[in-house]
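Incident log, support desk, overnight shift.

02:14 A customer reports that sequence design results differ from what the structure should imply. Their input is reproduced verbatim below. On-call engineer (initials T.W.) acknowledged and began investigating.
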């Protein structure tokens, strides 16, 4: 019987090892190609979905813009009718102006306060950077205090604040009326300047609480502020005027 030399065995083992490694690498590469193909397909589907959503939003925006134009035309017609001169029309004109102010549909001006909020510049000792940033609840605390003190109109970074306005954090910025803003946040509030100023700066008030985190809050009284009208649309899909009952009052469902 022919004897196999140890050197020959080692050579065959080396060849087999190389083949195994090459096979493993080929399989890994094939798997990577398959995963890349699946990822491309997923991305393509996601882009198609996002494009469809974008198209829907653009279409809705265009429709709402047209609706705003029609409502503004009707509003101008009501103004002209209300300004016809008789006593009843004058009362209607005054009522219409009050409703426009309440609904935020017209620019308003008057005395009040300006509030500027800026993120803290203190050294981070808690380890959480978010502790030193202004959040939506901080802004809402200021707005609610102003409303409680009798503010008749409020804006945040030029956005008129309505009953339907949202103020919420979206990452490192705050969204209001569908638009995103970063600090500093500037709030205009029209009302009695002394009352509004005192409400914010009283001891243990909202300014004191925010200052504990090093958040800068500057409150300045002003003789004249201009707050712009709400530039968006308000579309009520579910809330409708309640039908009067048989006794002439409002019905309760």
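02:41 Re-run completed on a clean worker. Output:
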């Amino acid at each position: 019987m022919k004897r196999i030399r140890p050197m020959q065995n080692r050579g065959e083992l080396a060849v087999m090892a190389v083949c195994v490694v090459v096979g493993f690498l080929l399989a890994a590469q094939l798997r990577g190609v398959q995963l890349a193909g699946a990822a491309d397909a997923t991305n393509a589907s996601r882009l198609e979905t996002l494009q469809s959503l974008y198209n829907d939003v653009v279409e809705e925006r265009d429709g709402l813009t047209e609706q705003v134009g029609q409502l503004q035309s009707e509003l101008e017609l009501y103004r002209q009718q209300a300004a016809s001169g008789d006593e009843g029309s004058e009362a209607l004109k005054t009522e219409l102006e009050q409703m426009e102010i309440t609904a935020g549909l017209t620019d308003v001006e008057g005395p009040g306060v300006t509030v500027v909020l800026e993120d803290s510049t203190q050294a981070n000792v808690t380890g959480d950077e978010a502790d030193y940033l202004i959040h939506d609840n901080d802004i809402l605390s200021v707005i609610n205090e102003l409303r409680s003190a009798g503010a008749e109109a409020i804006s945040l970074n030029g956005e008129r604040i309505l009953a339907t306005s949202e103020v919420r954090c979206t990452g490192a910025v705050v969204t209001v009326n569908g638009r995103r803003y970063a600090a500093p946040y500037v709030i205009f509030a029209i009302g009695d300047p002394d009352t509004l100023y005192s409400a914010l700066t009283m001891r243990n008030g909202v300014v004191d609480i925010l200052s504990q985190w090093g958040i800068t809050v500057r409150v300045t009284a002003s003789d004249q502020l201009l707050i712009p009208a709400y530039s968006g649309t308000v579309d009520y899909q579910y809330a409708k005027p309640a039908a009067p009952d048989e006794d002439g009052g409002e019905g309760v469902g």
